């Protein structure tokens, strides 16, 4: 009798753990994420390859892919009074990356879309088959949205690096200061 209770308790613990793990996963939405961009992300992106930090480092070393940072950027407001001190935020990036800020919002206007396409063309030319890696920071939907958009535009070798610069710097990889494209 005691043995049956122990087995039943073990089954409940294991089953409960599975439910907790399943509840912690984030499903891929049908569309784009349009709010709470700094939140847990899915582990998949339909039409794209998802990579680890080690894989990102190997691709960077091989120079076989274009790295695209999508971290948002707030430019100096035009309406600041004369003499106001504005301290630009410094962005440390994966070396050689192009920084295309603000392209990862769930909804982008025509100007932002044109900027996104122009930035990709500046690094990829007309080659929609070249490997292109989108990243931001860990738990950042901006990179997921940007990669999804590139897939929808017909790019065939889209790669999403969900850990972004957080994973890169945790792996003690070099960074370089970057400016928006």
Characterization of this structure:
The chain is an alpha/beta fold and 181 residues long. It is 37% helix and 13% strand. It has a 5-stranded parallel beta sheet, sandwiched between helices. A two-stranded antiparallel ribbon has the order 3-7. The radius of gyration is 20 Å and the shape is globular. It starts with a helix and ends with a strand.
Topology:
Elements: H1 2-24, E1 49-50, H2 53-62, E2 65-69, E3 91-93, E4 98-99, H3 110-124, E5 131-135, H4 141-152, E6 158-161, H5 164-170, E7 176-178
Parallel strand pairs: 1-6, 2-4, 2-5, 5-6
Antiparallel strand pairs: 3-7
Low-confidence stretches: 3-22
Write the H/E string, N to C. HEHEEEHEHEHE
C-alpha geometry: globular
> Rg to the nearest angstrom?
20 Å
What is the CATH top level name?
Alpha Beta
What is the first-to-last residue Cα distance?
A: 70 Å
**Could you report the average pLDDT, rounded to the nearest whole number?**
90
Number of strands: 7
Give the biggest sheet.
5 strands, parallel
Helix content: 25-40%
At CATH's second level, what is the architecture? 3-Layer(aba) Sandwich
Tally of helical runs: 5
């Amino acid at each position: 009798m005691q043995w049956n209770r122990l087995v039943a308790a073990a089954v409940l613990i294991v089953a409960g753990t599975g439910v907790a793990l399943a509840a912690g996963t984030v499903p891929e939405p049908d569309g784009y994420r349009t709010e709470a961009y700094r939140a847990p992300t899915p582990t998949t992106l339909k039409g794209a390859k998802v990579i680890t930090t080690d894989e990102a480092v190997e691709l960077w070393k091989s120079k076989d892919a274009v790295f695209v940072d999508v971290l948002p950027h707030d430019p100096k407001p035009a309406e600041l009074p004369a003499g106001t001190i504005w301290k630009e935020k410094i962005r440390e990036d994966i070396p050689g990356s192009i920084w295309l800020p603000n392209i990862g919002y769930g909804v982008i206007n025509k100007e932002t879309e044109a900027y996104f396409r122009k930035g990709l063309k500046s690094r990829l030319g007309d080659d929609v088959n070249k490997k292109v890696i989108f990243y931001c920071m860990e738990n950042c939907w901006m990179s997921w949205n940007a990669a999804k958009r590139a897939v929808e535009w017909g790019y065939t070798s889209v790669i999403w690096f969900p850990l972004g610069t957080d994973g890169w710097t945790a792996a003690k990889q070099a960074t370089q200061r970057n400016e928006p494209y």
